[in-house]
Structures are given as structure tokens and as C-alpha cells.
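Appendix B, Record 12. Input sequence as logged:
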Amino acid sequence: MQFAKRLEPLQANVFADMDQAKTRAKAAGRTIIDLSLGSSDLPTQPHVLEAIARSLPDPSTHGYLLFHGTQAFRQAAATWYTQKFGVAVDPETEVLPLIGSQEGTAHLPLAILNPGDFALLQDPGYPSHAGGVYLASGQIYLMPLEAKWGFLPVFEDIPTHVLAQSRMMVLSYPHNPTTAIAPLSFFQTAVAFCQQHNLVLVHDFPYPDFVFDGVQPPSVLQADREKSVSIEFFTMSKSYNMGGFRVGYAIGNADLIRALRQVKAAVDFNQYRGILNGAIAALAGDQTGVSAGVEIFRQQRDAFVQALHAIGWQVPLPIATMYVWAQLPEPWSKNSVQFCTQLVEATGVAASPGAGFGKSGEGYVRFALVHDPAILQAAVARMAEFLRSH
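Logged structural output:
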């Protein structure tokens, strides 16, 4: 049996390897503290669940849901966005519901790239960004992100011949995994660069609320108010603790929204209407649960970073996201997969190797702050023993 060549670059997956390592640790009797996945440990807000529950006995919610049936959700998304970022949005032409933002970032390349076209991606970056390009038979040019540049790409370093074949650039700030934030001035530069080189500017934006200490990250559309080249992806998974409900949406250039809608129409319908009713309640309802959740993650961040500092592992205090991006000590500075594999098998603490996010992620490890402070401190205590023994 023969399979398409586009699957070949998808076969290597360090996260699958880490899952096997966790399985071995469980089989050996280890109690797992899983800091490898950015899945919130907080519950969905009651008013969201109530909206879904009210939908369940309503037979009108039980059928297929096509685009025009999502109008109320699109309106809620547009209103939320305008209130938060001050940019007007047309819910009819500039909003598209998605089954999580990952669906959008993975499917959009099918609407933009012809075989052999380049996509400019961050390195390190979220793995689904590359997966969508490979499925579209595109090529990838990786833009290195380094601490000395604030984990921002240097557009001037992109080779001319690559730019000539490029059709899209993917950015994501606040950034997973580095936790970096980009200022509005950076997005203004990125918009001008993409306009100059006829590139679609894709911004994956799952953490607009996950910021600490009074910081407010900008939307790319604040730098491209005419929506000339830009599309932005949001998710309900982080701010509203709805990861399992699979709700996201795209906002941006009407032509890009229309093209992505064409791809989506060939692949699926929409979610159950009751789930979208819950998402409407989340977007339009009381937002104190969002700020309370962020405060919990701030406390978890502080506890984890303070515990790491106490054992001599100096890591920066992240100002956004639900992660800590930590540079590895010797002897693992060039083998993050080995560190994470040995760590989980020896201690039960699971983390994500930086190499899983790209070549420039090597030498780092990502910890997800998805447990209460006591559990995070226990994880650090286990890691301290592991580091001493090595």
C-alpha cells in the first residue's frame, strides 16, 4: 500500500515519543505530574455550561449546522473583538467559526499555497503551523527566534529567492513556546513587510487574555485596520477553559475568510449548535471568570519559577501564556528530548522538549503551568533530585 509523500514530514513527532516515555513511567509505577500539555486544569464557567445544557433538549439544535446558522456566534465574536481591540468587524464577511484555531492554521495553507510555494514560519513555533504547510505540499522557511532579539524574527534575514516564492507568513504572540510578547510596532513592521512582498499575514492568537502584570498584547488587526493582508485566529480553549469543546474562529480579510470557508466546506460542517450557544455565553457574558483564571495561572507561575530559582535553575519570569520556557543546564543543553525522556522515566515529571517546536528550540524545555502551586512545587522537588543525581 502506498501513501502520499506529503505524509513523510509528519512522521517524526517528538511528542508521540514523549507519550511513550510517559507510558513507560506509568508502567514502572511512577506518579505522573504532566507539565507537557497546555490544557487548562480549570473548569468551564457555570453560565457557559448552563447555555449548553439548555440546548440539549431542543430538537432544533440536533441537526447539521451550516454557515448561515452560525450568525449569532459570528456576531458575538465580532462584538467581543471590537470591544477588546477597537477594530470594527463585519460578522457576515470577516468572521468564520472553526473547530479550534488549530483547524484554521492547518487548513489555511490549502487555500493559499500551490505546491512548492514557501510559508515563513517561526522557529521555534507551534507544530500544527508546519503540518498545514506540509499537507498543502508547500515548502517551509524557518525564521529563527532568539532571546537576544526578544524572540522576534528578523525579516531582513529572509533570503531574496525565498521571498520570491513565499505566499504567507505565520506569527503568534504571545508566543508558544517562548512566552514572548510582540509590541504593536513589530506588527506594523510585519504588515508593511507582507504588503511589500505580497504575503498573507497569519496571526495565531490563542493567548490574548493570558498576560500578567498589566500587559495587554496587541492584535495584528490593530496594525492592519483595513485588513489588507491579515487574518487572525482565536480559540475558546485558553481564556474560557473550553479546550474539549473545540471552538475557535478566524477574523480578518474577507477574501481570506471566504477562501478558508471554501476549504472548510469541503471538510466538515460546524459544531453542535449547543456548543456554539455556550461559546456565545462565554463571549457575551460575565468576564470575571477570565480574569480570575489568569490570576490563578499567575500564582502558579510565581510558585513554579520561585521553586526553580530556589534549586538554582534560573529562568525568566514569563509575562504571558501558561508556560515557562527554560534553558537547559548541562549536560542536556543540546539534547532536550533526552532530558525530557530521562526526567519522566526517573521522576514522573513530564515536560515538552524544545526540539519538538523546531531547530531553534533545542537547548530549552517547556513546562505547562497546569497544576496548583503545591503540585508544581512537588514537581520541582522531584526535578531537583534528578538534577543532583546527574
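The first strand starts at residue 33 and ends at 34.
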